[in-house]
Amino acid sequence: MSLDFAPTQPLTATEEARRQIEICNACRYCEGFCSVFPAMTRQKAFADGDLTHLANLCHNCRGCYYACQYIPPHEFALNIPAALAEVRTESWERLARPQALARAFQEKGVAMAGLLVASLAVFFWVLAAFRPESGDGFYAHLAHNAMVAIFLPAFIAPLVLIGLSLRDYWRETGSGRIRFADLLKAGDMAGRMKNLNGGHGDGCNFENGDRFSQKRRIHHQLVMWGFLLCFAATSAGTIMHYVFSWPAPYPFWAPPKLLGVPGGIMMVIGTIGLALMKLKADPELGAKRVWGGEMAFILLLGVVAASGLALYAATGSALVGPLLALHLASVLTLFLLMPFSKMVHGFFRFTALVAEAGKNRT
To answer: In a 3-state reduction of DSSP, which class is residue 203?
Structure first.
């Protein structure tokens, strides 16, 4: 183990993370903070794949930074949240297909997402001019078959690309066979956002180094569970349409509305909370160059949820047309950018938790 505290040449993100992790591994003061630190203690030397795994286990709660005695101005100059954030972001970019698009979005995400939403909204607005002669609800503005033809490939293709990225991640990190118990453990960790609990039950201090809070954990859970409810609402609508021959629109007591409305409200509250916290948080403790891409992802999720709720509230009014165009554009943008935006972090972090469960088992 080499503890070279003052390198004579600039280090790459991976090299800098390795330097810092080796120091942390010698100290081990933060061992109970999150999954990163017990995982780190399995070895003394860290290959690139090991650092990729540790970086994706990190949830950037920043508790280790504020507890550390070796942060600047100490000569060790540790900043584990930022070091792992850089490696984590580089792993998403390196394993994505195509890499150039992932790198561009991470650095210019707000502009790219905004331009794509605006362009697609115009597209759907123009497409509405060719709307069918008959149809109820949304289908009075855009035919069901047209929606399926546009959104089905736009949903499946990004998932395939993400699947290929996760396959490469699994190989790079040297992870073994998956067991059902590993999935259950990872699901429990992700569902409770255990790694945002600070290891002591008081939460993390993401936006304020002097105060522990559960706010980030709660906002993340609102977004995650809200998104899953909305996805369940869409799935329920698909089943009702094709299996029970019950097309939209649906009354409020039908499953798509009972699931989708609360889910949308949860996402709006969660994204507002995350955006405000990100504005307050110290950018030096994350990957500064991708701040815009991360904020773009939060805002895009918020627009998807808010436009969906507004569309439901505007039922039967003249606002349905423009709101439908905005909502469909934002949803399609979210799908298309899934492999390149921070949306992919959920897939990578869950995979990292599954891999970690397997490594602990062996």
So the answer is: coil
164 phi/psi in degrees, rounded to 5: -65, -40
Top-confidence residue, 359 or 54: 54
Q: Is the pLDDT reported for residue 135 higher than 80?
A: no
Distance CA 31, CA 347 (A): 25
Query: Which burial class, exposed, middle or buried, applies to 31 when counting CB atoms under 10 A from its CB (0-12, 13-18, 19+)?
Result: middle
CA distance linking residue 62 with residue 81, whole number of Å: 6
Q: Token match 């503890």: residue?
A: 3
Spell 110-134 as b/e; 16+ CB within 10 A means b.
bebbeebbeebbeebbebbeeeeee
Per-residue pLDDT, 213: 83
Where would I find the H helices in the chain?
13-27, 36-40, 48-57, 63-67, 80-95, 99-127, 144-172, 180-192, 215-242, 255-280, 291-313, 320-336, 344-361
Contact 87, 14 (CB under 8 A): yes
| Helix ranges (DSSP H) in 243-319 | 255-280, 291-313
Place of tokens 């100059």: 77
Identify the residue with better confidence: 131 or 48.
48
The tokens for 86 are 């850089």
Task: Give the domain ranges of the chain.
Answer: 13-92, 97-361
DSSP assignment letter at 202: S
Grouping H, G, I as helix, E, B as strand and the rest as coil, residue 252 is coil
Alpha-carbon radius of gyration of the chain: 22
Q: Which residue type, as a one-letter code, is found at position 21?
A: I
Please name every residue paired with 280 in a beta bridge, in sequence order, or none if there are none.
Answer: none
Reported as a single tens digit per residue, the pLDDT across 40-89 is 998 889 999 999 999 999 999 888 898 899 999 999 999 999 999 999 99
Smallest Cα–Cα separation from 117: which of 273, 261, 307, 272? 307
Would you place residue 154 in the very low, low, confident or very high pLDDT band (cuts 50, 70, 90)?
very high
Angle between helices 13-27 and 48-57 (to 10 degrees): 70
- Total Cβ atoms within 10 A of residue 180: 7
Global pTM? Answer: 0.88
Scanning the structure block, which residue is given the tokens 């899934």?
A: 338
Token pair listed for 217: 């954990």
Q: How far apart are the first and last CA of the chain?
A: 24
